[in-house]
Amino acid sequence: MRITEIRVHGVADKGPETILDRPIVARVAGDDNAGFYRPRPGYGAAADRNGVTLEAYRWSRLTGGTATRTFSLVLLLPFMLSNIAVWMLPVTGRGGHAARALCRLLAATMTAMYVLSTVGVSLDLIAWQCAAYPRCLEGRREFSWLGDVPPGQRLALLAVPPIIAIVLIWRLGARTWQLPEDSDHAPGVGADRLDAPGFWDTRSLLRRLRSVHVAVALGTLDVTLLLVLAPHDATLPGWLLLAADVTLLAGAVVLLCRPAIERRGEQDQRSSRTIRWAAVALTALTLGYAVLPRPPWKAEGMLPGYGMLVAGLFAGQVVLLAMLGLVVVVQRRTLPRPLFLLAGLGAPVLITVSIGLGVAYDSGLTYGLAEYLDRGSSPTPARPLPPGAPPLSPPIAFRWATLGFSLAVLLVVVTALLGPRIGRDRRRREADKLVRRDYPEASRAAPERVRAVRDAIMRARLTARLGPLLATAYVVLALLTLAAAGLSVIGPGPGALALRLGGEPLARPVIFVTDLGALLIGLFAMVLAVMGLVAYRSGPIRLVGVLWELATFWPRAAHPLAPPCYVERAVPELTRRIGQLTADANAVVLSGQSHGSVLAAVTILQLPDHCRRRVALLTYGSPLGNRYRRIFPAYVSDEMLREVGGRLAWRWINLWRYTDAVGGAVFVPFVDGPDDRAARVDRRVRDPKGLLIPPTDTVPPPVQGHRFTPDDDFHAAIGELVERLERADG
């Protein structure tokens, strides 16, 4: 029996040559985005020491590979994170509908925030504030002509950039990696189990969500315009249009909350299309209404109603986050033996982070343009404007957000510095015991060598502890900031409040921290953008791509404008390739490293029975047990992992190390005794192999950590799986 080992890499791969440890390879299936590679004949052995034919599956170009694609992933990061949150909920099916509906509503507020940021730049700062002040227009030919255009027509003209931004996300939301051959069933809305054939096929749901989000985006733009025009005109057509747009947004909220959006049905598809085209028609009517001639009219101050919309959006997000947290806590109590990240509150925490990133983008863009337009004379309660200067200023809610960003940076830095020191002595003692137990030669090794291994174990264990601590510290402050920003609709900004409470001695440091936050937010957004442009081709910065590859693993079920899920192509390709090999009397060892082990496991669940009889699974550096089980408990559960082992007749070996900060055991904490077949899956390997210099080398073995290269332990595991396949075939 011929056996092929298909190696599936993890995040931030270095090419098929590195995966196969062969200098020259050739693609045997697939394309440039995702393909299968083998050693080119005559340029290295095509098989390993067990006689197994080597093959690599490279999928990383589905998430990056070009500057444009990687840059777009950075810009869509807030949408991406809000989409992941829905998969972190502890309950699936009907019982989890309320939480999923809240996640979709929060995702819709992210779209509204995106539109309000473009509105703030185009309509508020340029069309309304700058165009009304000669000093702002002076020497700027690109804007100076706006001074002669009436305010209503000016708003209609400058509404074009936000509309272009909406069309852009409309087009981005239509992207998919799914091939026509990837599904032999009707377009679906996903499923609740990873082994369901339609789990990775969410085309129908995406079309509905995309239509609703386009309606939310256009409705937000229309309401912003009509809050200026309708009160000024005080005529029936303006109020009717405003009422129609508010009704449209309410209808979008209803559609997002209905359980029917998650089910197939032509009627619901028509409803989503209807609300989208109704939004397009209302936008056309609103623009037509805006260009109507009006009596002379002077624009003063901030765009009327805009600050209220921004503050109201923040307040609504806080309310929805509180409701989501309450629902998740109630659901969590109904589940047995909970072992959840952040006590099961991972979904509201991640959405809060995504909102924080969205605020960072919006505030950075708004403050950056305001500084450019007002020539550095931003007004504050403690810093009056010079004579004739335009009072260009973002909404008060953004001032609270920037103050919170400064404090969040400080809090995260303090937590990162103090967190590792809490309980450090206890962790050091535990790691030292592990080193002394694994290495009898420790007493003969150099003390520095022993400490290096001990510290590697400590760092690996600290990762699981420090990450949730940092996230919790950030989220607590972010929630307080969003709440304060929402309350700014009825209250003053941070500078004005400080001036009222403590006079200038208190106001000046508060204003300084707020201005510092605006600068940090702008730098943060700029750094992310630059890293997105260069990450695809820079080795060290390529590590930024780890986040994108992890985040786009799950289908788009909450925010349709997130980057497309690469697994919707990767899993069908792997199942198709395994089916081709097993049909030719081959057996397959599916070998997954790090995040590739997750791909391998979900592929096993999608394989038909006649293929699985000739398949074995090797995972190493796998986050399935210690990460995915805690972060996505409803989908990567003990039941799901045992299903993978059972479908393979337990031809599964998982290699793990104490020094690995990402990977770990899959079943060790959950086995039901020595007779449990799951107890034979996990095999801990020593890292490093020894503390002393081997007789055949000049330096001691390195500490590998999360890096896995084919070594003796790896080849021994492959050899054992080959024997099991041969026994099953015989």
TrEMBL record:
Official protein name in the record: Integral membrane protein
Residue spans crossing the bilayer: 70-89, 101-123, 212-230, 236-257, 277-294, 306-330, 339-361, 397-419, 466-490, 510-536
Species of the source: Micromonospora saelicesensis
Annotated keywords: Membrane, Transmembrane, Transmembrane helix
UniProt keyword Transmembrane helix present: yes
